[in-house]
Design a protein that fits this description.
Elements lengths: L1 E9 L4 H16 L3 E8 L6 E7 L2 H8 L2 H9 L4 E10 L16
Antiparallel strand pairs: 1-3, 1-4, 2-3
Helix pairs in contact: 1-3
Length: 105
């Protein structure tokens, strides 16, 4: 399993940001082996983290190469004050299975 975590600080969002964000989220859902996503926001700093999960690296690469994602990468400085991407191979997941999560089978 793989995950891509996109961490960012915001500037000002506009209609183009929201349009691209929705298109990228939909594109992610259409990629091969997509498992799910989640988002987090730090209420103290406003920093946001979006995490996507895939069965393999194939779907993640499909999203990375998607035209809407490439457009957002070119234009990120219009909306973001900084970002960090973390690509991870998930070694294992566990829990009590009371939380519905993309990594719980």
């Amino acid at each position: 399993m793989y995950s891509a975590t996109f961490i960012f600080d915001t500037k000002q969002f506009d209609a183009d940001f929201h349009r691209l964000d929705a298109l990228i989220a939909e594109a992610a859902r259409q990629t091969e082996g997509y498992l799910g996503e989640e988002a987090w926001e730090d209420p103290k700093t406003g920093r946001i983290s979006n995490v996507y999960y895939w069965e393999s690296e194939i779907g993640m690469r499909q999203l990375i190469e998607h035209p809407n994602h490439l457009e957002a990468k070119r234009r990120y400085s219009e909306w973001l004050a900084g970002y960090q991407v973390i690509i991870s191979q998930v070694m294992r997941t566990y829990g009590d299975k009371r939380i519905a999560h993309a990594t719980v089978s």
